[in-house]
Protein backbone atom coordinates (compact mmCIF):
# COMPACT_ATOMS: atom_id res chain seq x y z
CA UNK A 1 0.00 0.00 0.00
CA UNK A 2 1.38 3.43 -0.93
CA UNK A 3 1.37 5.85 1.97
CA UNK A 4 -0.30 9.25 2.00
CA UNK A 5 3.15 10.76 2.56
CA UNK A 6 4.36 9.27 -0.72
CA UNK A 7 1.29 10.48 -2.55
CA UNK A 8 1.76 14.01 -1.27
CA UNK A 9 5.48 13.92 -2.07
CA UNK A 10 4.70 13.13 -5.68
CA UNK A 11 2.15 15.95 -5.90
CA UNK A 12 3.88 18.93 -4.24
CA UNK A 13 1.77 21.46 -6.13
CA UNK A 14 -1.56 19.83 -5.38
CA UNK A 15 -3.62 19.19 -2.29
CA UNK A 16 -5.19 16.17 -4.00
CA UNK A 17 -3.79 12.73 -3.25
CA UNK A 18 -2.89 10.64 -6.25
CA UNK A 19 -4.37 7.20 -6.59
CA UNK A 20 -2.06 4.21 -6.29
CA UNK A 21 -2.35 3.67 -10.05
CA UNK A 22 -1.32 7.26 -10.78
CA UNK A 23 1.65 6.99 -8.43
CA UNK A 24 2.67 3.70 -10.03
CA UNK A 25 2.55 5.29 -13.47
CA UNK A 26 4.66 8.26 -12.35
CA UNK A 27 7.24 6.09 -10.63
CA UNK A 28 7.38 3.80 -13.67
CA UNK A 29 7.94 6.77 -15.94
CA UNK A 30 10.79 8.12 -13.81
CA UNK A 31 12.49 4.73 -13.58
CA UNK A 32 12.25 4.23 -17.33
CA UNK A 33 13.72 7.66 -18.04
CA UNK A 34 16.87 6.99 -16.00
CA UNK A 35 17.56 3.52 -17.42
CA UNK A 36 19.56 4.73 -20.47
CA UNK A 37 22.00 6.50 -18.14
CA UNK A 38 22.97 3.06 -16.83
CA UNK A 39 22.93 1.45 -20.30
CA UNK A 40 20.26 -0.94 -19.06
CA UNK A 41 19.15 -3.63 -21.49
CA UNK A 42 16.13 -4.44 -19.32
CA UNK A 43 14.05 -1.79 -21.01
CA UNK A 44 14.67 -3.28 -24.43
CA UNK A 45 13.55 -6.63 -23.04
CA UNK A 46 10.38 -5.06 -21.65
CA UNK A 47 9.77 -3.34 -24.97
CA UNK A 48 10.18 -6.61 -26.89
CA UNK A 49 7.88 -8.56 -24.57
CA UNK A 50 5.16 -5.94 -24.75
CA UNK A 51 5.36 -5.90 -28.54
CA UNK A 52 5.13 -9.71 -28.63
CA UNK A 53 1.99 -9.55 -26.48
CA UNK A 54 0.58 -6.79 -28.70
CA UNK A 55 0.34 -4.43 -25.76
CA UNK A 56 0.05 -1.65 -28.33
CA UNK A 57 -0.84 -1.78 -31.98
CA UNK A 58 1.38 0.99 -33.33
CA UNK A 59 4.80 0.03 -34.72
CA UNK A 60 6.48 2.44 -32.30
CA UNK A 61 6.82 2.28 -28.50
CA UNK A 62 4.29 4.21 -26.41
CA UNK A 63 5.31 7.70 -25.38
CA UNK A 64 6.15 6.49 -21.87
CA UNK A 65 8.86 4.20 -23.26
CA UNK A 66 9.80 6.00 -26.45
CA UNK A 67 12.56 8.35 -25.35
CA UNK A 68 14.42 5.74 -23.31
CA UNK A 69 14.06 3.09 -26.03
CA UNK A 70 15.39 5.45 -28.69
CA UNK A 71 18.39 6.33 -26.53
CA UNK A 72 19.24 2.72 -25.78
CA UNK A 73 18.87 1.60 -29.39
CA UNK A 74 20.97 4.43 -30.81
CA UNK A 75 23.64 4.21 -28.10
CA UNK A 76 24.14 0.55 -29.00
CA UNK A 77 23.76 1.08 -32.74
CA UNK A 78 25.12 3.31 -35.45
CA UNK A 79 24.21 5.10 -38.65
CA UNK A 80 21.25 2.85 -39.50
CA UNK A 81 19.60 3.53 -36.15
CA UNK A 82 20.40 7.22 -36.49
CA UNK A 83 18.68 7.36 -39.88
CA UNK A 84 15.68 5.54 -38.43
CA UNK A 85 15.27 8.23 -35.79
CA UNK A 86 15.45 10.93 -38.45
CA UNK A 87 12.72 9.16 -40.40
CA UNK A 88 10.61 8.86 -37.28
CA UNK A 89 10.99 12.57 -36.65
CA UNK A 90 9.64 13.24 -40.13
CA UNK A 91 6.74 10.80 -39.94
CA UNK A 92 5.46 10.87 -36.35
CA UNK A 93 2.40 13.07 -36.00
CA UNK A 94 2.47 14.36 -32.43
CA UNK A 95 4.96 16.97 -31.29
CA UNK A 96 5.62 15.03 -28.07
CA UNK A 97 6.60 12.03 -30.21
CA UNK A 98 8.95 14.18 -32.26
CA UNK A 99 10.53 15.52 -29.06
CA UNK A 100 11.24 11.95 -27.97
CA UNK A 101 13.17 11.34 -31.19
CA UNK A 102 15.16 14.55 -30.64
CA UNK A 103 16.09 13.39 -27.15
CA UNK A 104 16.98 10.01 -28.62
CA UNK A 105 19.39 11.63 -31.08
CA UNK A 106 21.35 12.89 -28.09
CA UNK A 107 22.55 9.32 -27.51
CA UNK A 108 24.49 9.26 -30.80
CA UNK A 109 27.50 6.99 -30.12
CA UNK A 110 30.20 8.49 -32.37
CA UNK A 111 31.64 11.98 -32.87
CA UNK A 112 30.40 12.01 -36.47
CA UNK A 113 26.83 11.11 -35.54
CA UNK A 114 26.84 13.55 -32.63
CA UNK A 115 27.87 16.32 -35.02
CA UNK A 116 25.11 15.30 -37.44
CA UNK A 117 22.58 15.37 -34.62
CA UNK A 118 23.63 18.85 -33.49
CA UNK A 119 23.63 20.10 -37.08
CA UNK A 120 20.18 18.63 -37.65
CA UNK A 121 18.87 20.50 -34.62
CA UNK A 122 19.84 23.85 -36.13
CA UNK A 123 19.04 22.97 -39.74
CA UNK A 124 15.64 24.64 -39.68
CA UNK A 125 13.80 21.31 -39.76
CA UNK A 126 13.15 21.45 -36.02
CA UNK A 127 10.84 23.93 -34.31
CA UNK A 128 12.65 26.75 -32.54
CA UNK A 129 11.05 25.85 -29.22
CA UNK A 130 12.27 22.24 -29.55
CA UNK A 131 15.71 22.32 -31.16
CA UNK A 132 17.60 22.52 -27.85
CA UNK A 133 16.43 19.06 -26.79
CA UNK A 134 19.19 17.44 -28.83
CA UNK A 135 22.04 19.26 -27.09
CA UNK A 136 20.45 18.92 -23.64
CA UNK A 137 20.13 15.17 -24.11
CA UNK A 138 23.59 14.76 -25.61
CA UNK A 139 25.28 16.82 -22.91
CA UNK A 140 23.81 14.58 -20.23
CA UNK A 141 24.37 11.29 -22.05
CA UNK A 142 28.12 10.83 -21.60
CA UNK A 143 31.43 12.56 -20.99
CA UNK A 144 32.06 12.52 -24.73
CA UNK A 145 28.67 14.09 -25.36
CA UNK A 146 29.34 16.74 -22.74
CA UNK A 147 32.64 17.70 -24.35
CA UNK A 148 31.24 17.74 -27.87
CA UNK A 149 28.21 19.90 -27.15
CA UNK A 150 30.48 22.48 -25.54
CA UNK A 151 32.89 22.48 -28.49
CA UNK A 152 30.01 22.67 -30.95
CA UNK A 153 28.51 25.60 -29.08
CA UNK A 154 31.79 27.50 -29.11
CA UNK A 155 32.19 26.96 -32.83
CA UNK A 156 28.58 27.80 -33.67
CA UNK A 157 27.54 30.41 -31.15
CA UNK A 158 26.80 32.94 -33.88
CA UNK A 159 24.37 30.49 -35.49
CA UNK A 160 22.62 29.92 -32.18
CA UNK A 161 22.33 33.63 -31.45
CA UNK A 162 21.04 34.34 -34.96
CA UNK A 163 18.36 31.66 -34.57
CA UNK A 164 17.20 32.91 -31.18
CA UNK A 165 17.64 36.64 -31.70
CA UNK A 166 13.89 37.33 -31.77
CA UNK A 167 12.92 34.58 -29.33
CA UNK A 168 12.70 34.76 -25.57
CA UNK A 169 16.02 34.49 -23.75
CA UNK A 170 14.96 31.16 -22.25
CA UNK A 171 15.51 29.41 -25.60
CA UNK A 172 19.20 30.31 -25.72
CA UNK A 173 19.40 29.69 -21.96
CA UNK A 174 18.48 26.07 -22.65
CA UNK A 175 21.20 25.78 -25.29
CA UNK A 176 23.76 27.29 -22.90
CA UNK A 177 22.76 24.83 -20.18
CA UNK A 178 23.09 22.06 -22.76
CA UNK A 179 26.64 23.21 -23.44
CA UNK A 180 28.20 23.99 -20.06
CA UNK A 181 26.22 22.38 -17.24
CA UNK A 182 27.67 19.47 -15.31
CA UNK A 183 31.37 20.26 -15.62
CA UNK A 184 33.29 19.86 -12.40
CA UNK A 185 36.83 21.22 -12.66
CA UNK A 186 38.38 24.60 -11.97
CA UNK A 187 40.00 24.49 -15.41
CA UNK A 188 36.65 24.07 -17.12
CA UNK A 189 35.11 26.85 -15.03
CA UNK A 190 37.95 29.15 -16.10
CA UNK A 191 37.52 28.10 -19.74
CA UNK A 192 33.79 28.83 -19.69
CA UNK A 193 34.32 32.13 -17.88
CA UNK A 194 36.97 33.24 -20.36
CA UNK A 195 34.87 32.26 -23.37
CA UNK A 196 31.83 34.24 -22.31
CA UNK A 197 34.05 37.09 -21.19
CA UNK A 198 35.26 37.34 -24.77
CA UNK A 199 31.83 36.53 -26.24
CA UNK A 200 29.28 38.15 -23.93
CA UNK A 201 25.57 37.36 -24.12
CA UNK A 202 23.88 40.10 -22.06
CA UNK A 203 20.40 38.58 -22.22
CA UNK A 204 21.71 35.30 -20.86
CA UNK A 205 24.20 36.63 -18.33
CA UNK A 206 22.27 35.34 -15.32
CA UNK A 207 22.14 31.78 -16.65
CA UNK A 208 25.84 31.85 -17.55
CA UNK A 209 26.78 33.15 -14.10
CA UNK A 210 24.66 30.49 -12.39
CA UNK A 211 26.22 27.72 -14.44
CA UNK A 212 29.76 28.91 -13.75
CA UNK A 213 28.97 29.09 -10.04
CA UNK A 214 27.64 25.53 -10.22
CA UNK A 215 30.83 24.34 -11.94
CA UNK A 216 32.94 26.04 -9.25
CA UNK A 217 30.87 24.41 -6.51
CA UNK A 218 31.10 20.98 -8.15
CA UNK A 219 34.87 21.37 -8.57
CA UNK A 220 35.32 22.17 -4.88
CA UNK A 221 33.12 19.25 -3.86
CA UNK A 222 35.04 16.88 -6.14
CA UNK A 223 38.33 18.07 -4.67
CA UNK A 224 37.06 17.33 -1.16
CA UNK A 225 35.96 13.86 -2.18
CA UNK A 226 39.29 13.12 -3.86
CA UNK A 227 41.18 14.35 -0.81
CA UNK A 228 39.20 12.04 1.49
CA UNK A 229 39.09 8.27 1.72
CA UNK A 230 35.77 8.18 -0.11
CA UNK A 231 37.37 7.69 -3.53
CA UNK A 232 39.49 4.74 -2.39
CA UNK A 233 36.49 3.16 -0.68
CA UNK A 234 34.33 3.53 -3.78
CA UNK A 235 37.01 2.12 -6.08
CA UNK A 236 37.55 -0.89 -3.82
CA UNK A 237 33.79 -1.43 -3.56
CA UNK A 238 33.35 -1.37 -7.34
CA UNK A 239 36.16 -3.89 -7.80
CA UNK A 240 34.44 -6.48 -5.59
Key terms for this structure?
240 residues, mainly alpha, Zincin-like fold, 2 domains, 13 helices, 70% helix, disordered N terminus, ERAP1-like_C_dom, peptide binding, Peptidase_M1_aminopeptidases
Provide structural commentary.
Belongs to the peptidase M1 family. The protein is mainly alpha-helical and 240 residues long. It folds into two domains: 29-166, Zincin-like fold (Alpha Horseshoe), CATH 1.25.50; 182-240, no CATH class. Helices cover 70% and strands 0% of the residues. It contains 13 helices and no strands. It has helices at 4-9, 20-34, 42-52, 63-75, 79-91, 95-105, 111-121, 132-141, 143-164, 169-180, 186-198, 205-227, 230-238. The longest helix has 23 residues, at 205-227.
In short:
With 240 residues, the chain is mainly α. The protein is built from 13 helices and no strands.
Rg, alpha carbons: 20 Å
Largest sheet: none
* Portion in beta strands: under 5%
Approximately how much helix is present in the residues? Answer: over 70%
Total number of domains: 2
Judging by the overall fold, what is the CATH architecture of the largest domain? Alpha Horseshoe
Pfam families: ERAP1_C (PF11838)
GO biological process, one term: proteolysis
GO cellular component, one term: extracellular space
GO molecular function, one term: peptide binding
Amino acid sequence: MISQHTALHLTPCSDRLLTSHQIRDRLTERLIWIMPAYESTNLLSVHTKLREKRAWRAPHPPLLFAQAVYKLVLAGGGEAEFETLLRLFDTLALNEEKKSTLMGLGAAPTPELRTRALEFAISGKVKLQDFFYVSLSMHRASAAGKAQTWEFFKQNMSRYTAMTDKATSSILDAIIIGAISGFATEAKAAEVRDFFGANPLPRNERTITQQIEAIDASAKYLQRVQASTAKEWLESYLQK
